[in-house]
Amino acid sequence: MTTPTGQIACIAIIGPDNNPILIEKYCEESQNQEIDTLLFCSLDYFDQPQNAGPKKPLKNSSDRFLGNIQTSDRFQIWGYKSSLGYKIIILTVHIVSIPENSMRGVCERVKDVLFDSLMDPFYQPFSLIESPKVIAHIKDIALSLQVPIQL
């Protein structure tokens, strides 16, 4: 586990049947259990209707970015559901507010890496992604989110 210079603590890809496909954590080992719990609990948000209440308008069915689905005392949890049912969950450090457009872009980049890896003829569907190349791409995405900290 490495500590990124960016704000992302974890990037997870969950299969259509809620099986983990890839979980990359960029945090201290003492936070692993908390992150695992938050990942598991956030899966419920993917099954709920897309309108998140009176504050948010009804989302377009083609809009697969769920936005900030949950906030804990340490992390913001962002969700994205691909057209094939794969769920992308990203935990960011709850230090500063991250623009939704930035997180939408990160989620779409992770989705692109996922779909590229699914095209690999040696990949077994719905199994863990262990390709060093894919993991390196995911790490690059995690390190790419730079949000200035305002003091």
TrEMBL record:
SUPFAM superfamilies in UniProt: SNARE-like
Recorded superkingdom: Eukaryota
Pfam family, one: Sedlin_N
Gene Ontology CC annotations of this record: cytoplasm
Alphabetized InterPro entries for the sequence: Longin-like_dom_sf (IPR011012), Sedlin (IPR006722)
GO biological process: endoplasmic reticulum to Golgi vesicle-mediated transport
UniProt cross-references to PANTHER family, sorted A to Z: TRAFFICKING PROTEIN PARTICLE COMPLEX SUBUNIT 2
Name of this protein: Trafficking protein particle complex subunit 2-like protein
